[in-house]
Each structure stands twice: as C-alpha cells, then as structure tokens.
Design goal:
alpha+beta, 24% strand, two-stranded antiparallel ribbon, binds zinc ion, 74 residues
Length: 74
C-alpha cells in the first residue's frame, strides 16, 4: 500500500496499489485518491480535502486548502 502526502493538507494518504488501482479505493479503505483536473494537472488528495473542494476544482483551490493566505511565494 502506497502512502504519500496529501497535496492539500499534507497528511499522509494511503492509496492501495498506487495510481493504477486508484479506482479500487472503495474496497481497500484508502484515505484518499488522485484527482485529475480539467486543466490537465493531477493531485493526490485525502477525502476531507476532496470534500472541501468545489465542484470543478483547480490548482488554486488545492493551494487554498493547504494554508489560506500563506502561499505568496508561488
Ligand atoms: Zn488533505
């Protein structure tokens, strides 16, 4: 089982088997999944972050999850 930091909050996200098997998460109690956005980027996110995102999330929405008001260097 893979475990990588959430792109939103930085918490470890467990994904069973990695990206190739991401769609099986419901059967393996993973704590998050990789989302592909319409702009072509993809982000590993935990379920709380996924639920916090709007319906059509963008990179900016992910950045906002991390630490609102403290992302000026990008
Ligand atoms: Zn998160």
């Amino acid at each position: 089982m893979a475990s990588d930091p959430c792109d939103g909050c930085g918490r470890p996200v467990k994904i069973p088997g990695g990206i190739a098997n991401v769609w099986t998460f419901a059967d393996h109690r993973g704590t998050g999944m990789t989302l592909e956005f319409e702009d072509g980027s993809s982000h590993l996110l935990c379920y709380p972050c996924i639920e916090a995102l709007p319906e059509d999330p963008t990179d900016e929405d992910v950045a906002a999850l991390e630490d609102p008001g403290d992302r000026e260097e990008e």
